[in-house]
Write a structure and sequence with these properties.
alpha/beta, 3 domains, 8 strands
């Protein structure tokens, strides 16, 4: 996701990126956040056989897709997410995420499908498809799946990184430590590639190639940090970093009633280090909201740790629990689906 509403806000302030494409960036090295770029394509392939998805074949498919879109194997590095950092798990748990609602809806749908099947009634294809989509959304790409995915991708792309954590942080660290990549004796500037807006937050990332939604007339747009800062009226990269930290993102929520526009105006007036500006922002923001909406100094610490310090922490137990949840939901869905097929009613008894 990144910063909620960031790209829409940038468009409003006159910065919607330059139409571009991978094959036009011949003087750049492209760092691809695979799950942030191909997430929908991966899950479409998984849904074809949720009982035993073939990750190597999916890797072959993605490699062909990337190549067809203009990614040059010798000028592309693919980053594959590792475990979610504890900071993201904590953030999602603390805000009672959509995931809980998804699981509840799955259980309700499965109960309805089972009940109707036992009564000789028919559950609509729409309900079945919706339930299948929700179950597949719980699927976690475990280490073996990612290793097999890498194997499939290597049929075309040699430079692939299995990250210790999330790919966006790994790309930011890589671009901080090595801003350019040498190819055929030429130093190529690195560009991050994703659909997520949080890449714009990291200080080390200077350009982002955004894959646009399918309905867009333009397939890709290229955003340069200097242009983003100018459009928002920010004087330094630290201001853009602060802006990303204080607005709703994967780790923390913004202060209630303070959205992208009001926060932009506050950030413009601040000066100093990231820590001093963040403290000043909280003091200013708290004065603008009522008592119930005010936050403590540490409210944005999760985002600060990720986007500024780039020090996520990990606990494999989180992914293990996710694996068990998917398997449980998958088994229940398959049982309900099979019962539905075993109890096909006469068309005259169809109910929707």
């Amino acid at each position: 996701m990144g910063v909620a509403g960031a790209y829409a806000h940038l468009k409003k302030v006159g910065c919607e990126g330059t139409p571009s494409s991978p094959d036009e960036l011949k003087n750049c090295h492209l760092d691809v956040d695979l799950l942030g770029y191909c997430r929908d394509a991966i899950y479409r392939q998984i849904r074809k056989d949720m009982s035993d998805p073939n990750a190597v074949s999916i890797g072959h498919y993605l490699a062909a897709q990337l190549q067809a879109e203009g990614f040059l194997p010798q000028q592309t590095t693919i980053f594959i997410d590792g475990p979610r950092p504890d900071q993201k798990v904590l953030a999602k748990a603390s805000r009672g995420t959509q995931r809980t609602k998804t699981i509840k809806t799955i259980r309700l749908n499965i109960a309805s499908i089972t009940k109707k099947s036992r009564e000789g009634k028919w559950s609509s294809g729409t309900v079945m498809k919706d339930t299948m989509l929700k179950v597949s959304s719980l699927f976690i790409l475990d280490n073996q799946f990612k290793s097999d995915l890498k194997q499939g991708l290597q049929a075309v792309f040699a430079s692939i990184v299995l990250c210790d954590g999330e790919a966006d942080t790994a790309i930011a660290v890589a671009q901080r430590d090595h801003p350019t990549v040498t190819h055929d004796g030429e130093a190529l500037k690195r560009v991050a590639v994703s659909i997520d807006s949080d890449f714009l937050i990291y200080q080390s990332i200077q350009s982002v190639l955004r894959k646009m939604p399918q309905k867009s007339e333009v397939r890709f747009r290229l955003y340069h940090k200097t242009e983003v800062m100018k459009a928002l009226g920010f004087g330094t990269p630290l201001h853009l970093l602060l802006y990303g930290i204080i607005n709703t993102n994967d780790y923390t929520r913004s202060i209630y009633t303070l959205g992208l526009v009001r926060n932009m105006n506050i950030v413009r007036s601040l000066q100093g280090s990231i820590e001093s500006m963040l403290a000043a922002y909280i003091q200013t923001a708290n004065a603008l909201v009522d008592q119930a909406g005010r936050v403590a100094l540490g409210h944005f610490d999760l985002s600060l740790t990720i986007f500024y310090l780039m020090r996520p922490t990990y606990d494999d137990v989180n992914s293990q629990l996710d694996d068990l949840m998917f398997l449980e939901m998958f088994v229940e869905f398959i049982e309900a689906r099979d019962l539905r097929l075993e109890n096909l009613p006469d068309r005259s008894t169809f109910t929707r």
